[in-house]
Specification:
Layout: H1 2-15, E1 24-27, H2 28-45, E2 49-53, E3 60-63, H3 65-81, E4 88-96, E5 99-106, H4 140-150, E6 154-158, E7 166-173, H5 181-185, E8 197-201, H6 205-217, E9 221-225, H7 228-238, E10 242-246, H8 254-263, E11 271-276, H9 281-290, E12 294-297, H10 302-310
Parallel strand pairs: 2-4, 8-9, 8-10, 10-11, 11-12
Antiparallel strand pairs: 1-3, 4-5, 5-7, 6-7
Helix pairs in contact: 1-4, 1-6, 2-3, 3-4, 7-8
């Protein structure tokens, strides 16, 4: 739980432009050694074989050594989790046109082609891999992407399909100047909204609680309900400015909750946001007919949500 909280705090700081890098000249070997040492207990517990192949020459770059080690340890941890015992994991590096390219590949469960495009979104997890997540919330890769962007780097995921392993390729400039103030402070990040009363209703307790934590870190007052009827009872006393409601709750659907809220005299002014895994035009129209102001498809992007909350009454 402490590690999950640390990752959530880092994601929130990146989203709000408050995560500052402590850049210095750092040796690649030192960063790799630190990351491998962090992941070694997991590798040994699953009897994995790790191979590290780096260029023979000593490479240095301007970067935050702690954050770079965090990036690599997250990628190695994912490889270890999603590879069956006695698997093979490779960490390799090379230089191409002044760019450091690092690759973490494995012979694990692989990734379906349709999942590659959403791997780096918040709360995204590989289909069928929930049992291996060991309590994870699907934020590790989103954090890796955010940290790399602060360094002026990129990440790419590749896989030949389910059961055929995966590869994550990190690219970082070798000779770049230390990250600019604009990058380190997130100048392009949407402004943080003023504190608002937000209700989150979702029967996925981990996702609901994690989203609530992110919103609280953004300065909002948040309450959570894990069932439709509980959401209606909570709204009666909490009177939220914004309600983020999952459509697929078991006792009352999000559509039913929205309709009930709109029947209340105090409920007409609430900004209702539908949260669903379906994003077709028919789904958006059904949400609108039920009284929702906005429709967001899972996994919700923290930046998009914060931008929405920053917009006056949230509509």
């Amino acid at each position: 739980m402490a590690l999950l909280l640390d990752d959530l705090l880092d994601i929130a700081r990146i989203t709000q432009g408050k995560l500052e890098l402590k850049a210095e000249r750092v040796k690649l070997t030192d960063v790799v050694d630190s990351a491998v040492e962090e992941v070694r207990p997991l590798l040994e517990s699953k009897n994995h074989q790790l191979t590290v192949t780096l260029p023979p020459e000593e490479l240095t770059l301007n970067a935050d050594p702690l954050r770079l080690s965090q990036i690599l340890s997250n990628l190695l941890t994912n490889a270890a989790k999603y590879t069956d015992p006695a698997g093979h994991i490779n960490l390799s590096g090379g230089v191409q046109n002044g760019t450091l390219c690092l690759s973490v590949n494995d012979d694990g469960i692989g990734i379906a082609p349709q999942a590659l495009t959403r791997l780096f979104e918040m709360f995204s997890q590989i289909d069928g891999a929930a049992a291996r997540s060991e309590g994870g919330l699907g934020i590790g890769l989103a954090l890796v992407k955010g940290l790399l962007e602060l360094h002026g780097g990129t990440i790419e995921a590749r896989s030949h399909g389910l059961g055929r392993g995966s590869e994550f390729i990190v690219r970082l400039p070798l000779t770049a100047a230390p990250p600019s103030e604009a990058s380190a402070t997130g100048a392009d990040v949407p402004p943080v909204a003023r504190g608002r009363r937000v209700m989150v209703a979702d029967d996925n307790e981990d996702a609901a609680d994690a989203l609530a934590m992110l919103l609280e870190l953004g300065g909002h007052e948040v309450r959570v309900a894990h069932r439709g009827r509980a959401a209606l009872e909570l709204a009666q006393t909490f009177r939220p400015d914004v309600a983020i409601i999952d459509i697929g709750m078991p006792d009352l659907s999000g559509y039913e909750v929205a309709k009930e809220l709109r029947r209340e005299s105090w409920g007409t002014g609430i900004c209702l946001i539908a949260l669903t895994g379906w994003g077709q035009d028919d789904d958006r129209q059904r949400a609108k007919d039920a009284g929702f102001d906005r429709h967001m498809t899972k996994p919700v992007e923290a930046c998009a949500l914060e931008e929405l909350l920053s917009n006056g009454n949230g509509r």
